[in-house]
Specification:
The chain has helices at residues 14-18, 21-30, 32-47, 56-63, 93-102, 122-131, 144-155, 157-162, 191-197, 213-219, 246-249, 277-282, 308-316, 318-322, 327-338, 343-349, 352-368, 404-409, 435-444, and strands at residues 75-76, 80-82, 110-111, 116-117, 137-141, 174-178, 184-186, 189-190, 201-205, 224-230, 256-261, 287-291, 302-306, 374-383, 386-400, 414-415, 417-419, 422-425. With 452 residues, it is an alpha/beta fold. It folds into three domains: 8-63; 75-86 and 345-451, Aspartate Aminotransferase, domain 1 (Alpha-Beta Complex); 93-340, Aspartate Aminotransferase, domain 2. The strands form five sheets. A seven-stranded mixed sheet has the order 5-13-12-11-10-6-9, with helices on both faces. Helix 5 packs antiparallel against helix 15 (327-338), helix 6 (122-131) packs parallel to helix 15 (327-338) and helix 17 (352-368) runs parallel beside helix 19 (435-444). The two termini are 53 Å apart. The protein binds pyridoxal-5'-phosphate (PLP).
């Protein structure tokens, strides 16, 4: 009698399916709601006669995502080291391990020896202080923009709150800044808007291409909270230009805050034009702000380095609590600062010869598989709004552009860049142990008619 029943009527019951050990394991990682939604869709396919009842479990498992978060790991073969759309800096294995270790209960604000409360994130702060010895004190907030917002809020607060200078803090509510440095970072985010949103007044000096010390000097007065110098990270002005170095700004008698952007803590010969925290502080900057996930190669964070009294003022400001970083960030930051070379710097320092070797190997493996690809010279860039003038001699595998979409939609997704009708895959930012994954992804792309 059973054999006569239409298989569509034999849809396995949800409670029976949820008890299946394979699905129970999926529930443990993804949660019941997520699992059930996929399961119900598979049951629906049985009703429609698309799959057999015994296929519900395998079909459900195949349709489930690997993790509960929708963020998917991708292979960055774009040749852009700090790709904003791909999450800027990838964490080092050491930082990932630190994040995993800190994910549960952790002693982030407890001294285990005394059993008393301890300074939050002291390990990360100590590591940052050690990496930036020119700074009197350091603090960490959510990102570079948050660091600037905190500085602008806290250092211009005296006048607005008390009618006159608050004890210890600078006097005025104005921020003096060059017109050549009022930059848009990206995605419509404009620095002057951020500063104005804190209630501070911007006192713009100079012109787009030229600003002199005299321009600053004429604007600085009793209302000045600080002079801000911003590194225009993502563009350059060339030709008839002039800007004032930090050394000279430091003679104006008000604090100089330098937003270096990238998070380079000390000068690096690979990026000679990129400003660094140590040089800015030695030149007399009272405070330096920077991002943690650009050239520092760490997690998203905003670094504040400089004068101990000013850093303390920032740390104690009520807004600091709203900009506070998570324990995971603190863990990743500390491991980035104390651990091995970051993936970002490994990518930046990869030599053209080593990249060519890897790319040629990839080409040869693909040739053995009957796929024609060419090894071409390419230019990689730093990205992330950093070092816009720098190109890194690189190498790429050139494929027909029809490969771009299937590779992007594959598992794992492989992202390259299109150039003159070809897809270029640059291995610079691909960890060498993932070359095989790139090869496998290419081999899975159905051959086009043009190729065969
Ligand atoms: C990137 C950047 C910022 C913003 O930093 P986020 O960490 O992205 O918030 C601010 N200023 C400069 C000069 C930058 O390069």
């Amino acid at each position: 009698m059973n054999g006569a029943v239409d298989p569509r009527r034999r849809v396995p019951r949800t409670d029976v399916l949820l008890a299946d050990p394979r699905l129970a394991a999926a529930e443990a990682t993804l949660g019941r709601a997520r699992l059930k939604a996929v399961l119900v869709a598979a049951q629906e396919r049985v009703r429609r006669g698309e799959i057999r009842p015994e296929e519900v479990v395998p079909a459900t498992l195949a349709a489930l995502p690997e993790t509960a978060a929708g963020l998917r790991p991708v292979l960055n073969a774009t040749g852009v080291v700090l790709h904003t759309n791909l999450g800027r800096a990838p964490l080092s294995a050491a930082a990932v391990a630190a994040v995993v270790a800190a994910a549960g209960h952790t002693d982030v604000e407890l001294d285990l020896r005394t059993g008393r409360r301890a300074r939050r994130g002291r390990g990360a702060l100590a590591a940052l202080a050690a990496a930036a010895p020119a700074a009197g004190a350091v603090h960490v907030v959510n990102n570079g923009a948050a660091a600037l917002a905190l500085v602008a809020t806290a250092l211009t607060a005296g006048r607005r709150q008390h009618g006159e200078a608050a004890g210890g803090g600078p006097a005025g509510r104005e921020i003096v800044v060059s017109r050549g440095e009022l930059v848009e970072i990206g995605d419509g985010f404009r620095l002057p808007d951020l500063l104005a949103s804190t209630g501070a007044t911007l006192r713009e000096v100079g012109t787009t291409n030229r600003t002199a010390l005299a321009d600053y000097a004429a604007a600085v007065g009793p209302d000045t909270a600080f002079v801000l110098k911003v590194h225009p990270s993502n563009f350059v002005v060339r030709g008839f230009t002039a800007a004032v170095p930090v050394e000279e700004l430091a003679t104006l008698g008000v604090p100089v805050v330098v937003d270096i952007g990238s998070g380079l803590l000390a000068p690096d010969p690979l990026l000679p034009e990129e400003p660094d925290a140590a040089s800015a502080l030695r030149a007399g900057a009272a405070l330096v702000t920077a991002s943690g996930d650009k050239l520092l190669g760490g997690p998203q964070a905003g670094l504040l380095l400089g004068d101990a009294d000013l850093v303390e003022l920032l740390r104690r400001h009520p807004l600091a609590r709203a900009l506070r970083v998570d324990k995971l960030t603190l863990a990743a930051l500390e491991a980035t600062l104390t651990g091995p070379e970051t993936p970002t710097w490994r990518a930046l320092r990869a030599t053209p010869a080593a990249l060519r070797l890897r790319t040629e190997r990839l080409r040869d493996q693909l040739a053995a598989d009957g796929r024609k690809a060419e090894v071409v010279a390419a230019d990689a860039v730093v990205g992330g709004g950093g070092a816009p003038e720098v190109t890194l001699d690189s190498c790429a595998l050139a494929l027909p552009e029809e490969y771009a979409e299937p590779l992007r939609l594959g598992d794992p997704p492989v992202l390259g860049r299109l150039e003159r009708g070809r897809l270029l895959l640059d291995l610079r930012c691909v960890p060498v142990e993932r070359d095989e994954a790139v090869r496998a992804a290419i081999s899975r792309v159905p051959r086009s008619r043009r190729e065969s």
